[in-house]
C-alpha cells in the first residue's frame, strides 16, 4: 500500500453548495477550494473538495438531502476576542446563536467558536477561579474572554 488512509468530513448541502463555499471563503481566512464539479444541467455545483484552516471537507450539493443537526459541530479554536467577534458575527449574521460558543451558519452547520484563551480560565489550577469561569461560560452565547475574570 503506497497511499495513506485519510479522513475528511463530508457535508451534504441541500442544493446550495456553491453559496456555502462562497460564504466559507468570505468568512474563514484560510479557506482553500481544491476541486469542484458541475455535473447537473442546471449549472448548480454538485461536488467540491475544500479545506478550512487545514481541515479537509467534501461537499455535495444534491437537493433533498438530510438537514444538519446539533449532533455534530465543527470546533474552531481562534486567537483572541477580535477573532471570536469576527467569526461569530459572520456565522450568526444569517445563522443563529446558541449557548456556550455554539452557533449555526446560514446553511445549518453547527460551529463552536472557542478562543484559545478560554482554557486559561476554565482550566485554572485555582478551583474557585475555574468554577467561576465555567459558571460564566454557561451564561454566554458568544464567548467573551473578559467575562471569565472575576470583577
From TrEMBL:
It holds the Pfam family 3-dmu-9_3-mt. InterPro entries: 3_dmu_93_MTrfase, Glyas_Bleomycin-R_OHBP_Dase, PhnB-like. Residues 8-114 form the PhnB-like domain. This is Unannotated protein.
Amino acid at each position: 500500500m503506497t497511499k495513506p488512509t485519510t479522513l475528511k468530513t463530508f457535508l451534504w448541502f441541500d442544493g446550495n453548495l456553491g453559496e456555502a463555499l462562497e460564504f466559507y471563503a468570505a468568512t474563514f481566512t484560510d479557506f482553500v477550494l481544491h476541486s469542484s464539479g458541475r455535473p447537473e444541467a442546471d449549472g448548480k455545483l454538485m461536488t467540491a473538495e475544500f479545506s478550512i484552516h487545514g481541515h479537509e471537507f467534501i461537499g455535495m450539493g444534491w437537493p433533498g438531502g438530510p438537514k444538519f443537526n446539533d449532533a455534530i459541530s465543527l470546533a474552531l479554536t481562534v486567537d483572541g476576542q477580535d477573532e471570536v467577534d469576527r467569526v461569530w458575527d459572520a456565522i450568526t449574521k444569517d445563522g443563529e446563536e446558541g449557548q456556550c460558543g455554539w452557533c449555526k451558519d446560514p446553511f445549518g452547520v453547527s460551529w463552536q467558536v472557542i478562543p484559545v484563551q478560554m482554557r486559561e480560565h476554565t482550566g485554572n489550577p485555582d478551583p474557585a477561579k475555574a468554577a467561576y469561569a465555567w459558571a460564566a461560560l454557561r451564561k454566554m452565547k458568544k464567548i467573551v474572554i473578559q467575562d471569565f475574570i472575576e470583577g
